[in-house]
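Let us begin with a simple case.
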Amino acid sequence: MRVAIPLFGDQVSPRFGPGRHFMLASIEDGQIQEKQLVEAQDAAQSQLPTFLASLGVTKLICGGIQHQLQRDMECHGIDVIWGIIGPASEALCALANGTLHNDQFVGRESKARTNTSSSKARAGGHPP
């Protein structure tokens, strides 16, 4: 499977469309085979489904996405996992492990919340 993740720094971009930098990766048998960065310099937002399909992408991991753009992705054979928040590399690992689903925190953010709650409980405070 060929995967694309729009980037905001090293994070999954909160909105699909405005940014033009993508992490591309191949996953086979639950293993990440290769990763590369690609820029869609001249592609308008409406051209991104065609651009990604031309790269062999079959799965898109993103934050928010407009409904029409999601439908356009699906018409190009690209399955969309939306609502993802966190580091792109952690989202990719979760996909490879089969644990990624819509509307999910991945990586450092979810771990930080768990650790903060535990620390407050041990220190006599109340977890949020």
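The second case is a distinct protein. As before, the sequence precedes its structure tokens.
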Amino acid sequence: MTAAIAGVLFVTFLGGPIAAQQPPAEPQEEFLPIDQLPPAEQLPAAPLLVTAYAFAWVVVFFYVWTVWRRLGRVEAEMRVLEKRQMHRGDGPSGVNRTGVR
């Protein structure tokens, strides 16, 4: 049963890309600069790739910035709570030192 599932998954995930590959074109004999290649063989997706990576990095930096701000707020709230606890007479560990609560 598991072998059948593994076979189906293999064909599903790897069979399509393998079947979609184009046969290799005639081998290139010499080096050609990219501006001398025909338009079909140039990299038209390069600007899209750079844009995608830039967008991903902007999202990562925005996420880190928001986490940093939220952490700062939590630390400020903890300092306020610690001061409030000190004014009540409790120690920093939350144990009432007078024995009466």
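The two ends are 65 Å apart (CA to CA). The mean pLDDT is 78.
Keep these points in mind for the review questions at the end of the chapter.
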